[in-house]
Design goal:
Blueprint (H helix, E strand, L loop, with lengths): L1 E7 L12 H10 L3 E6 L4 E6 L4 H16 L5 E5 H10 L12 E6 L5 H8 L7 E4 L3 E5 L11 H8 L4 E5 H11 L1
Antiparallel strand pairs: 1-3, 1-4, 2-3, 5-7, 5-8, 6-7
Helix pairs in contact: 3-6, 4-5
Length: about 180
């Protein structure tokens, strides 16, 4: 069995797409996954599965949420090796002095460096991006509230179907849960 983190896009944010974490755990368990735990209220679920296919697991989560909860929610799945690699890389660690303002934007596809330049053009002074494999590291010294570097900007300009961000604290907690 492999431990995975399911990352749900845009639930329980600003009163939209409300999903109780107990309901999310029950839903994931109902899909046949085990040792299900949630982290925070913003769409992080950790589980064990026999499936080796992250994209299939994400699609399964999306279908189940639509069927059982009536919501269209983009989902991504990553394993412990993915999170360990992301944390080890930490290309912004030298400038990011506040983990609540350091983010990882998880993507449904690989990062196209040329297209990432289109996203970087939206950055305010001091904001920084660094490409990973299927993620972009992001430093927002003034916080996420006023940035133009939103999930929609990443989806539109990088041509991915799902982009969802987690701050560094959440990324490291998810990695611990997967270890």
């Amino acid at each position: 069995m492999t431990r995975y983190a399911g990352l749900l896009r845009g639930i329980n944010v600003g009163g939209n797409k409300k999903i109780a974490m107990a309901d999310l755990r029950k839903l994931v368990e109902g899909l046949g996954h085990s040792d299900v735990k949630t982290l925070l209220q913003s769409g992080n679920v950790v589980f064990s599965s026999d499936s080796p296919d992250q994209a299939a697991l994400a699609a399964e989560l999306e279908r189940a949420i639509e069927a059982e909860l009536g919501m269209s929610v983009g989902c991504l799945v990553r394993d412990g090796a993915d999170l360990a690699r992301i944390i080890a890389a930490d290309p912004l660690g030298e400038v990011a002095d506040n983990p609540s303002r350091q983010f990882v934007v998880f993507l449904s596809g690989a990062v196209d460096q040329a297209k990432l330049a289109e996203v970087e053009a939206l950055a305010k002074p001091g904001e920084r991006l660094a490409a990973g494999e299927r993620e972009v590291h992001m430093w927002l010294p003034d916080g996420a509230a006023e940035t133009k570097l939103t999930h929609l900007a990443f989806q539109k300009r990088l041509g991915v179907t799902v982009a969802t961000a987690r701050n560094w604290n959440t990324v490291t907690k998810l990695a611990t849960l997967l270890a």
